[in-house]
Design brief:
The complex is a heterotetramer of chains A (166), B (108), C (722) and D (521). With 108 residues, chain B is mainly α. Chain B has three helices and no strands. Chain D has 521 residues and is mainly α. Chain D contains 21 helices and three strands. Chain D has a three-stranded antiparallel β-sheet. In chain D, helix 3 runs parallel beside helix 5 (136-155) and helix 17 (424-438) crosses helix 19 (482-500). The longest helix of chain D is centred in the middle third of the chain and has 32 residues, at 184-215. Classes of the chains: A mainly alpha (166), B mainly alpha (108), C mainly alpha (722), D mainly alpha (521). Chains in contact: A-B, A-C, A-D, B-C, B-D, C-D. The B-C interface holds B 22, 25-27, 34, 100-101, 103-108 and C 691-692, 694-699, 702-703, 706.
Chain lengths: 166, 108, 722, 521
């Protein structure tokens, strides 16, 4: 394995460790606000994974939408409802042990599946500008869902307004 | 890079993140924390999609369906978050709680 | 030339139209509604008689070339289309003669019966319509329409639909008085409760049979590929059935299907073990009892076996035992119900058990292959049983009670009713020369011949003969008991006796007409005439070309006649010695009660109601039986269960305890109580658990969903390693 | 881009355009004239309903069709370089051409009709219900979008389209469920619905990503052909199917993904409940049919077991718990869960032999029967609730006096739900159980039959107070608008007609089932 390979592996493990640690923090931290911040960290980690997978555009989208919009929205919501959660004795509900059992089994199952399936490895070097192709695909092949999603966003907007208005 | 990091690594990270997210969604009391768990699950799915695109697609440039799918997932996650947070705020206004366990007027 | 048969499809349409008109337009006008219903049934009768006489003219050839037309495409199943249409073969045409005739009598009778008379403050007798008079006529019209549709159905699915409409109507009619606000009409809360429970009981019990029937129909369609009566019994289709893998062990397809279909009959025709609904169905108004238990619903079950007879025959020929099952169930029910009829004090309930018993006769006949005898008994029974019910109805209309121990000496007050009832009763007993004598004797003769003389001894037919002969004795006994208790002796209840009076003409004229039929109809198939046999039996059946063998009028027939007459007379004489010679006095217990434990068993109907169905108490409450209690325990749902589940369990356990304690004094009540408490808490736990899943916490729900999806996925994963 | 795409999407586009128009007009009129907006929505649905048959009958210029009903069109086909591809018969089409994003075929058309009729009948009930409420215009707009997304779900043949349509339908449903924002129950119902739906849809997405990983394609046709060709993917395909079933099962409310349903049904505005009990369920079945037949069909032994298991769970849970319910909306929720179980029996009964009693036919017939019956039952509930606010069985006393029409029709609908002839429900059950028996699943049919006997108990429990108990003190007679009456009449008449003249429905279902020739070959 050449140096670049070793370095990229190291980088990968670092990013993976950070992402999972942040993810763990997101679900375990008692303070919801801190959990929200950890969520932002996870999003960054995932964006970095996209970069390693050479999906630069998606990494940018991840940062813009997930961190710029969704995470901020969540943090706002936390602050709006914050006063309540201060004197909670626990942030984890009564069924957590069951949930833990389920996810452990699920993870083992997924892991076995991942190892067992003969995944296709036809990947070739990319190193080219993917965005024009992506744009073309979105406006030709995927035109229909693209347009539908625009209507969907409008509906969600109206819905959020109706439900959350004073 | 593609030669040095096997696909399975990405898939494992994704599986782990998915399970963490599921834990958050099922075990957190705060409705907003539940939402955060769901977002983690969606991110895990996206890692899967992008990794499969990068490794598995015979024509990663011409056929970017994995990326497109991920884009749609992100967009819908945003829409979902908007509606979900609106619901959380509505509930908070009407009953002063965002604890999922206390939202149980409807049962049996 | 005008062919009446072309209008066959109109027959059920007339009463249906009457139903629609009453419901939509005339429901507020009682008089008009009853006229609409009458006109509907008269029109149906007119067309039916036309078809019947045309069929008679065709003769036995009709069986292989029936009046058949199925013009309306109903289900285009690819290659096999199922069409909606009509089919009239000899036995169908006879049904077309019987059903509307009896229905018309019942309709006429109802116009008076559904009035309630009471004494007003001035001491005058006032007569007032039942508050739901019009509705009653709407229901019975629909009922008649369904039965007529069933008779002319050209395919099994159409048949089944008519069958189910009848099921629903029976629910509405048996529970007709389950309606609050009738107090001023002498219908108290207890009666309301009993009626309601009886309606539901009838509906649910028969539904068990219906479900079996429906499964049988689906199987039949899958194996034979057609449901049209004229097409499904072709040899090719039937043989196809044998090709398939036998579904359950040695049970081949034809046997299974025949038994499933027979399951429908068991429910509808109230055969053991699903007979429990019929006695309680007496809560309905008497015309309903006559309609359901003589002419329509219970006959439908027998008619189903008649229609499917080629299947049973095919099964028997290919080594199956479905016909044996029919024979055994029929014969057993015949004697079983007769024993219970012996211990009833309600005049209508005696008739109810006699109905069950007589239906058992018909099935026993069909089961040993005596197709014509069974069919003929179906027809005669419809007439004399309708007569008996209507006469009994006249009695209780007049006396205001249906307890025979409160009657007595009524023959002086109601001579016409008495005479007609006697004719019906003698016919039921099988006394010469009434219709029942000919048809019942035919069945006994056939089983006798089949059992001992026809190709050697056939154990099954011998068994059937013995059971039926004993049942004949019991029939004469309980019928005699009924006659003596009701019409002879001294009045045991002065009030009821005072109140009694002869019925109005609109009630006794139908009785007289039915009595006429009862007297002379038997001649149709008397051994020296055998016209019925030539018509129905000689041409075989639709789907079964083989003609039925005609029993010769030989010595054996003579012997059989004398034997059955002797049996009937000895039964009647026994009744005379017990009830007639020394009439039961007021307040005196039934002399037969001296039988002790046997009497208790009979009077409690073998405790079958307690075992499964559910028992309807006199006060109108109902106790769930074991079977229903099981469902009830799961749910604590339906209100009968909810209120009575624990009580019912306690009662049952208490009853067990009492019985055991009586036999073995050393059983400690405490043990039983402990058992009850444990059972109660366990079932309660189960009931609660199912519903408690719905905690209201969405994360519980999601956990179950995620765990479910995961479990399915992991199971598939594990499967790949094994 | 081929302009014909617009034609073949016209029912959906009409609904979406009308929805946007309503939003605009509502903005312009500031909440006034809401009745007019309702009529506009109704008009849009009617136009879509009228257009749909023409769409199916339209003869493509370059592709003469044999069947009168059967215009099969694939839209946005990536591989073939054009956006509209006519397909004479799916059975003869190579899977490459089947590589489309969206299809306008017989199955889609069947579900178009179902969706549009559902929309119309529910709108009839909504006119009364929404009177005097706020944001009525938006309600109609969102409702139209829900109907449109239901159709789109049925026509999707690509994982992206499936996901987008499911989410579209879900998000709109969440909003409609939480529409009565002053009502705590409505709020809570929406919240639960939302959380449950989001979690299950994330699980479903994970399953979809696995399909993509195995086949490098998002198209059902291609995924199916790859998975069929290579048995190495058997485990993966079934694993992914189980995860996808979470999302689809959530829409259909199959056990164990059903628990949101009673809560959401109880809290939602009743017309929305009626929609939820039909719309998402039916659309979910459309997509389950496509996934089952186009993707995993080859592993029949496995998915038949999966579906049978789920069907048994669903029927039994739904029916048994329904016995314990006294709230009519919740009771009908459990009933509709159980009904979905019967439909799944039909799905498990797919033998793939194109026989008339095959599972696909059976499911489609059952859906049509269930549609009218269940809508009818809900319309009765709505009519009673509008006037009295009563949703508990105990408040239904004396209905026979207070509203004879409603009481009589309720009997009929209950008979149909219980599967007793002469009703459409009987026909559906006949076919569904027949399919199961024909596919050697006699035991499954037996359990279904037992369940249908159990269900009689609680269906009749609704009727008991209506007929046999006195009306509560001061209870008025119930009146309702002509709109609602129309809805009731349509439901009742169709419930009867389906039984009496099933041929048209039968043909529709057969045509719908035919498209799966590829998978069944």
């Amino acid at each position: 394995m050449d140096v670049i390979g070793i370095i990229s592996q190291l980088v990968f493990f670092l990013i993976a460790a950070l992402t999972l640690a942040a993810g763990l923090a997101t679900v375990l931290l008692r303070n919801v606000f801190h959990a929200g911040l950890a969520l932002v960290g996870t999003f960054f980690g995932v964006a970095a994974l996209y970069l390693m997978l050479e999906a630069e555009f998606l990494a940018v989208v991840q940062i813009l939408i997930y961190i710029g919009a969704i995470a901020v929205l969540i943090l706002f919501a936390i602050m709006l409802t914050r006063s309540l959660m201060k004197n909670e004795d626990s942030n984890i509900n009564k069924q957590w042990a069951w949930v833990a059992t389920v996810i452990v089994i699920l993870f083992v199952g997924l892991f076995i599946l991942i190892l067992q399936v003969p995944w296709q490895h036809s990947g070739t070097a990319v190193y080219t500008d993917l965005v024009p192709h992506l744009g073309t695909a979105l406006l030709t092949t995927y035109l229909l869902p693209f347009e539908i999603v625009s209507v969907l966003l409008l509906a969600a907007l109206i819905g959020a307004f109706i439900i959350a208005r004073e | 890079m593609i030669t040095t990091i096997p696909l399975v690594y990405y898939l494992t990270i994704s599986a782990a993140l998915f399970c963490l997210g599921l834990f958050g969604a099922l075990a957190r009391r705060n409705a907003i924390a539940v939402l955060m768990g769901i977002e983690l699950m969606l991110n895990a799915v996206n890692i899967n999609l992008v990794a499969f695109w990068r490794y598995g697609s015979p024509d990663p440039i011409g056929d970017q369906s994995g990326i497109v799918f991920a884009l749609f997932v992100i967009t819908l996650a945003a829409a979902e978050a908007a509606v979900g947070l609106a619901l959380v705020i509505a509930i908070y206004r009407s009953r002063d709680t965002v604890n999922v366990e206390e939202i149980d007027l409807l049962k049996w | 030339m005008l062919l009446v048969e072309q209008f066959t499809l109109l027959i059920p349409l007339f009463p249906l139209l009457a139903f629609a008109i009453i419901v939509l337009f005339t429901r507020n006008n009682n008089r008009l509604s009853s006229w609409v219903a009458l006109i509907g049934i008269i029109a149906a009768l007119a067309v039916s008689l036309g078809v019947f006489f045309e069929a008679l003219a065709e003769g036995p050839e009709l069986a292989q070339n029936p009046f058949y037309s199925a013009p309306i495409v109903w289900y285009p199943f690819g290659t096999a289309t199922l069409n909606f249409g009509w089919l009239v073969d000899p036995i169908g045409s006879v049904m077309l003669f019987m059903v509307p005739t009896v229905c018309l009598m019942i309709f006429i009778y109802s116009t008076s019966y559904m009035k309630h008379s009471h004494v007003d403050e001035h001491g005058h007798h006032v007569s007032e319509d039942d508050p739901r008079y019009a509705r009653f006529f709407a229901y019975i019209s629909l009922f008649a329409a369904a039965m007529l549709l069933l008779v002319i159905s050209s395919n099994l699915l159409q048949f089944f639909i008519a069958w189910e409409i009848m099921g629903f109507c029976s629910y509405a009619l048996i529970g007709f008085w389950s309606f609050r606000g009738l107090k001023e009409h002498h219908i108290d809360d207890a009666q309301v409760g009993r009626a309601r429970a009886a309606g539901i009981k009838a509906f649910l019990t028969t539904r068990v049979g219906d479900v079996l029937l429906m499964t049988g129909i689906i199987f039949l369609f899958i194996t034979v590929g057609n449901l049209d009566f004229t097409q499904m019994f072709n040899p090719e289709g039937l043989n196809n059935m044998l090709l398939g893998e036998p579904p359950i062990g040695a049970l081949q397809w034809p046997t299974l299907i025949a038994l499933l279909i027979f399951g429908g009959t068991i429910g509808k025709s109230a055969q053991f073990p699903l007979h429990v609904w019929l006695p309680d169905a007496m809560e309905g108004p008497t015309p309903v009892s006559a309609l359901i238990h003589a002419a329509t619903m219970v006959s439908a079950g027998i008619f189903l076996v008649i229609r499917m007879f080629p299947l049973f025959v095919f099964d028997a020929q290919s080594g199956g035992f479905s016909m044996q099952v029919v024979a055994v169930v029929g014969a057993f029910t015949a004697i079983f119900a007769a024993t219970m009829g012996l211990a009833q004090s309600d005049i209508k309930r005696v008739l109810a058990f006699s109905t069950i018993s007589q239906l058992g006769y018909m099935l026993a006949a069909l089961g040993i292959g005596a197709f014509v005898a069974g069919s003929f008994h179906l027809i005669t029974h419809a007439f004399f049983k309708a007569l008996l019910f209507l006469a009994a109805g006249a009695v209780l209309h007049a006396t205001g009670t249906n307890d025979m121990f409160k009657m007595g000496g009524l023959w002086r007050k109601m001579p016409i009713t008495f005479i007609t009832f006697m004719i019906g009763a003698l016919s039921l007993m099988g006394i010469f020369p009434f219709a029942g004598f000919w048809s019942k004797d035919e069945i006994l003769l056939e089983s006798l011949r089949e059992g001992w003389f026809h190709g050697g001894a056939v154990a099954l037919a011998q068994f059937v003969y013995i059971l039926l002969a004993i049942a004949a004795f019991l029939t004469a006994l309980y019928t005699g008991r009924q006659i003596f208790l009701t019409f002879f002796g001294k009045p045991r209840d002065e009030h009821a006796y005072e109140h009694a009076h002869e019925s109005p003409a609109s009630m006794w004229v139908p009785l007289a007409i039915l009595a006429t039929f009862t007297t002379f109809l038997g001649l149709w198939n008397a051994p020296f005439i055998s016209a019925f046999f030539h018509f129905v039996g000689e041409g075989g059946l639709v789907g079964l070309a083989q003609p039925f063998e005609h029993a010769p009028f030989d010595d054996l027939a003579n012997i059989s006649v004398y034997v059955s007459l002797a049996i009937a007379l000895s039964g009647f004489l026994t009744a005379y010695f017990i009830y007639g010679f020394r009439p039961v006095a007021a307040g005196q217990a039934d002399p037969l009660a001296r039988l002790g434990i046997i009497w208790r068993v009979l009077a409690n109907k073998y405790w079958l109601d307690e075992l499964y169905g559910y028992k309807i108490n006199l006060d109108g409450t109902a106790q769930p039986g074991l079977l229903l209690r099981f469902v009830g325990a799961l749910s604590r749902a339906s209100y009968w269960f909810d209120r009575n589940i624990v009580d019912g369990l306690v009662n049952l356990a208490g009853w067990i305890g009492r019985m055991l304690a009586r036999v073995n004094g050393w059983i400690d009540r405490n043990i039983v109580d402990g058992l009850v408490n444990t059972t109660g808490s366990v079932t309660g736990e189960i009931a609660g658990w199912w519903r408690l899943m719905q905690t209201g916490n969405v994360q519980n729900y999601a956990l179950l969903a995620a765990a479910g999806a995961m479990a399915f996925a992991i199971l598939f994963l594990l499967r790949s390693f094994t | 881009m081929d302009g014909l795409v617009l034609l073949y999407l016209s029912p959906e586009l009409i609904l979406i355009a009308a929805s946007l128009l309503i939003l605009g007009l509502d903005l312009l009129w500031r909440g006034r004239n809401s009745q007019l907006l309702g009529w506009l929505a109704l008009a849009a649905l009617v136009v879509a309903l009228v257009v749909t048959p023409f769409l199916a009958l339209y003869q493509a210029p370059d592709q003469p069709l044999g069947a009168a009903w059967g215009n099969q069109v694939a839209l946005f086909c990536k591989e073939c370089g054009t956006t509209v591809v006519y397909l004479a018969d799916w059975a003869q089409v190579p899977s490459r051409i089947a590589d489309a994003l969206y299809v306008s075929d017989n199955l889609t058309n069947f579900f178009r009709l179902v969706a549009e009729i559902t929309g119309i009948v529910i709108l009839f009930a909504t006119f009364d219900y929404m009177r005097g409420k706020k944001f009525v215009g938006e309600f109609y707009a969102l409702f139209l979008l829900a109907v449109a997304s239901m159709i789109m779900l049925a026509g999707s043949t690509n994982l992206i389209m499936i996901f987008v349509s499911i989410e579209f339908l879900s998000i709109v449903s969440y909003i409609l469920t939480g529409y009565l924002r002053e009502n705590k129950k409505s709020n809570e119902a929406a919240m639960k619905y939302f959380l449950f739906g989001s979690i299950t849809s994330a699980i479903m997405l994970y399953g979809m990503s696995l399909f993509y990983g195995a086949t490098a394609s998002l198209n059902l046709g291609v995924i199916g052909s790859v998975i069929t060709a290579d048995t190495n993917y058997e485990v993966l395909a079934l694993f992914a199917l189980a995860l996808v079933l979470a999302g689809v099962g959530f829409k259909i409310a199959l056990a164990p993904f059903h628990q949101w349903a009673p809560d959401a049904y109880e809290g939602a505005p009743t017309p929305v409940t009626a929609f939820l009990s039909v719309g998402p369920k039916v659309a979910g079945f459309a997509i389950l049919l496509r996934i089952t037949l186009q993707v995993v069909f080859v592993y029949k032994a496995d998915w038949v077991i999966l579906y049978s298991l789920v069907a048994v769970l669903t029927m039994t849970l739904g029916n048994v718990i329904a016995l314990a319910e006294s709230n009519v909306k919740r009771l009908l929720a459990y009933s509709s869960i159980a009904q979905a179980g019967y439909m799944l029996v039909g799905l498990a009964g797919i033998a793939g032999n194109n026989s008339p009693l095959d599972g696909v036919n059976a499911v489609l017939i059952y859906i049509a029967a269930y549609l009218f019956t269940n809508l009818g039952a809900f319309l009765v509930v709505i009519a009673i609730e509008n006037q009295t606010g009563a949703v508990d069985i105990s408040q239904y006393g004396g209905m026979i006096k207070r509203a004879p029409l409603l009481a009589a029709l309720m009997v009929y609908f209950m008979l149909s739900l219980a599967g007793i002839p002469p009703t459409a429900g009987f026909l559906g059950k006949f076919f569904v159980f027949g399919a199961a028996i024909g596919n050697n699943l006699g035991w499954l049919a037996a359990i279904g039959v037992i369940n249908s006997v159990i269900s009689v108990f609680y269906y009749f429990r609704i009727l008991r107070p209506m007929f046999f108990e006195p009306a509560p003190e001061g209870a008025a007679t119930i009146t309702f608008s002509p709109w609602l009456r129309w809805g009731l009449v349509i439901s009742a008449v169709m419930t009867l007609l389906i039984m009496l003249f099933p041929t048209p429905l039968f043909n529709l279902a057969t045509h719908g089932a035919q498209i799966f020739g590829v998978a069944m070959r």
